[in-house]
Amino acid sequence: MLSVLIETHNDEEGLARTLATLIGGAVEGVVREVVVCDNGSTDHTHRVAEHAGCHYVGSGGIAAGIRQAKGDWLLFLEPGARLVEGWIDAVVAHTARQTMAARFSRARGSRTPFLARVFSANRALADGLVISKRQAAPLSKKAGTAEALARGLATKKLDAEIWVAPPRQAQRSPR
């Protein structure tokens, strides 16, 4: 079974979009739980997580979320990322036969043009991350964030797609 971890900061809208794509996994019995690791949000992120039945971790960061996770495998997603239909079978197949971490392929409409990829900062969690809890736990002690945990890991590509979350600046609207 899989525990999904989502690190947030004022991401109520993105969180809701991501949670919607996980419903099929919960119905199929693949997603055991969703742990929302919040970094001091001042919006309604807590309410979105609570209404969706997520475990909400308000302090301790991603390391606390990993400690609370009950699944043997963890799926890290950015708020706003959306998994494409078929992800469940790909993740189940991967976790049944692999020990190494994996990432999703970007959906065709979500792929960044070549020059934009060359000249922009690469987000390590943009393609999601499926990793065993056994591998993630020691990494989380040194990495303060999910992004830092995912950076530099050797991974396989899953035979499933993800719509990448928009960059952080584009997610927030002025209030």
UniProtKB/TrEMBL annotation:
Primary subcellular site in the record, as a coarse category: membrane
Residue ranges the record marks as coiled coil: none
Keyword field: Cell membrane, Glycosyltransferase, Membrane, Transferase
EC number: 2.4.-.-
Glycosyltransferase 2-like domain: residues covered: 3-79
Name of this chain's protein: Glycosyltransferase
SUPFAM superfamilies the record matches: Nucleotide-diphospho-sugar transferases
Localization (cell): Cell membrane
InterPro entries reported in the protein's UniProt record: Glyco_trans_2-like, Nucleotide-diphossugar_trans
The UniProt record lists the keyword Glycosyltransferase: yes
GO MF term list: glycosyltransferase activity
